[in-house]
Amino acid sequence: MTTNHHGRALSDQQARRRVASAMLVGTTLEWYDFFLYGTAAALIFNKQFFPSLSPAAGTLAAFSTFAVGFVARPIGGLVFGHFGDRVGRRNTLIVSLLMMGIASTLIGVVPNYASIGVWAPVLLVLLRVVQGIGLGGEGAGATLMSMEHAPADKRNLYAGFPQMGTPAGLVLANIVFLTTNALMPSGAFDAWGWRIPFLLSGVLVAVGLAIRLHIEESPSFSKVVSHHKVETFPLREALRVGVVRMGLTLGLMVANSAVAYVFMVFTLSYGTKQLDYNRSFLIVCVSVAAVIWFATIPWWTGVADRSGRRTMFVGGSIALLIWCVLFLPMMNTGSAVLTAVAFLGMGLIIPVTHSVQGAIIADTFPAAVRYSGTSLVLQLGAILGGGLAPIISSALVGESDGSAGVTVYLIAICLISLVSAVILFRRTEPSASATQVDEASAA
């Protein structure tokens, strides 16, 4: 039994659910901020902050500021990972949420290029760096908090709750973006109305902070403290798992990240500028696919808990590769129906591997260094996958004036992840209980 902040007793199950819910809410709000920037970068920022560039160059510059957030994420991962392993998961997650919310709110008041010239994109990039650092601390920490509170037979399920924050944040960002756009007079949204969703972030983060303040510290970290096993330099100890295993784990996750950001961000720019699709139509397609993504994560994590991750992850990787062959050609037909099907297919396939990748990475490391190790892998994977994907895709389209190069790029990165997963699962036991790792680390 444990107690809540009013001193009333909570059952272990209630406490676990409270933590899982708090992690879901917090990650949803942080991803709302992150994806809101991505949508604005695809559709708005080229005109507001890079008006002197051509449309293609302006879009590439806007996506570059989007990528800056990914470059900053390893910094956040290293800093928050260190303190998460030294002083605890809970407090570091509170700080990460505050950083993201404050940065996003300030983006809503940054003057545009017409007002302050080159300082406008400079301020935008600086705030994007703060966003990236905040999210770098969130991804691993939220997964660990939820997973480390879970019963031994449901660790994939609980680790999946923070993963659900990714599509939930995307849907929330797109709903707010679309609603604000629909309610504004013609031209007003592009001129100043885009700021409203960013300003709303301040209110949403206050709600998330109130929830996150009332959860208990991770039992695994508490056990490490009680056994006096806190590491002075946790990242150094995390690296002892070996370069090969770290590399395979990193390779395993890059495809899901890259494909997701092509599907969520790059297609908004490509579809509107190259294929003349309506902006709202594409955002709705992405949002409906994200709802499917969100809804199916508990199913897939349940499958992983019952049957193991190996077959499910490898099968999902193969399905993702096949759908990448079809995805952009279906968009290129100009058919709204085929385009919608292409997006819905992504919504069905992406969660198969995304749902358990956080748990797979976390189970690579013992509890005493798990935050540091997991953060490093997650954030490097995010850069190599999601951070570079929109830029690479935009450059490939600019070179060839078509999407064939992007399709080849997605196939190549899917093959990297598939091969990495097969080799990793042959070298290790993918369903090994993290409880055993925790016990070993505390012994």
From TrEMBL:
InterPro entries in UniProt: MFS_dom, MFS_sugar_transport-like, MFS_trans_sf
Membrane topology term: Multi-pass membrane protein
PANTHER family, sorted: SHIKIMATE TRANSPORTER (PTHR43045:SF1)
Species, as recorded: Gordonia humi
Keyword field: Cell membrane, Membrane, Symport, Transmembrane, Transmembrane helix, Transport
SUPFAM superfamilies found in the cross-reference section: MFS general substrate transporter
Physiological role: May be a proton symporter involved in the uptake of osmolytes such as proline and glycine betaine.
Record-annotated membrane-spanning stretches: 21-45, 57-80, 92-110, 116-136, 157-180, 192-213, 246-268, 280-300, 312-330, 336-356, 376-398, 404-425
Entry GO CC: plasma membrane
Pfam families, A to Z: Sugar_tr
UniProt cross-references to Gene3D superfamilies, sorted A to Z: MFS general substrate transporter like domains
GO MF, one example: symporter activity
Family: Belongs to the major facilitator superfamily. Metabolite:H+ Symporter (MHS) family (TC 2.A.1.6) family.
Record's subcellular location: Cell membrane
Taxonomic classification: Bacteria, Bacillati, Actinomycetota, Actinomycetes, Mycobacteriales
Domain Major facilitator superfamily (MFS) profile: 19-429
Protein name: Putative proline/betaine transporter
